[in-house]
Amino acid sequence: ETTLTQSPAFMSATPGDKVNISCKASQDIDDDMNWYQQKPGEAPIFIIQEATTLVPGIPPRFSGSGYGTDFTLTINNIESEDAAYYFCLQHDIFPYTFGQGTKLEIK
Amino acid sequence: QVQLVQSGAEVRKPGASVKVSCKASGYSFTTSALHWVRQAPGQSLEWMGWLSAGNAYTRYSQRFQGRVTISGDTSASTVYMELSSLRSEDTAVYYCARDEGNGMDVWGQGTTVTVSS
């Protein structure tokens, strides 16, 4: 099974900040990494596909980078509405696996 | 628009089974796959299995092998997930999610399954 180690588990930011969330895979998964945003009581929203491609309709302050085993979700110019839980998913190797998630708080 | 609408919350006793449905609309049902994922309270997400809607091929996580069955009804554009021999640790929100080749894109609203005696 491919383990995804996501960090940090929790972070706090101020509007206008830039934040990075890391996801490291235990084996090479090419660019088969997606990122999601989830708010309490809601279904996850797809924000980054194939490691670097912004999903249509998602604000351009979100971006993704990485290939192979190391991946990063970056949020520039953080807004209060970005307060959420973020998680990564690898869809290269069965069983598909998720990172442990990052709770982002906006001060 | 693309939508996945799941059945309502369920409460079951330990040892029982539960069957959750996921009705798709707004796209061609048979050209995609549908995953089932669960999220226990305070935990990350866990992949359970998937079904290729066009040919009914299924694949399951070994963790649930033997306890989970995913099936589909193409005439109703609906996928089902049945989990048997329920235990308290199966208390979770269960999601279906569409996959058109780039991982899960659209998710259902989630179904809460509570296992309690």
What layout of secondary structure does this protein have?
The complex is a heterodimer of chains A (107) and B (117).
Chain A: E1 4-7, E2 10-13, E3 19-25, E4 33-38, E5 45-49, E6 53-54, E7 62-67, E8 70-75, E9 84-90, E10 97-98, E11 102-106
Parallel strand pairs in A: 2-11
Antiparallel strand pairs in A: 1-3, 3-8, 4-5, 4-9, 5-6, 7-8, 9-10, 9-11
Chain B: E1 3-6, E2 10-12, E3 18-25, E4 33-39, E5 45-52, E6 57-60, E7 68-73, E8 78-83, E9 92-99, E10 104-107, E11 111-115
Parallel strand pairs in B: 2-11
Antiparallel strand pairs in B: 1-3, 3-8, 4-5, 4-9, 5-6, 7-8, 9-10, 9-11
Number of helices of chain B: 0
Fraction of residues in H or I helices of chain A: under 10%
- How much helical structure, as a percent, in the residues of chain B? under 10%
Oligomer: heterodimer
- C-alpha Rg of chain A (nearest Å): 13 Å
Q: What is the general shape of chain B?
A: globular
SSE order of chain A: EEEEEEEEEEE
- Major sheet characteristics of chain B: 7 strands, mixed
Unreliable stretches of chain A = none
Structural class of chain A: mainly beta
Could you spell the SSE succession of chain B in H and E letters?
EEEEEEEEEEE
- Strand pairing plus helix content of chain B: what structural class? mainly beta
Rg calc of chain B: 13 Å
Let me know the largest β-sheet of chain A: 7 strands, mixed
Report the β-strand fraction of chain A as a percent range.
Answer: over 45%
Mean pLDDT of chain A: 97
Give the helix tally of chain A: 0
Chain pair forming the biggest interface: A-B, 22 and 22 residues
Mean pLDDT of chain B: 95
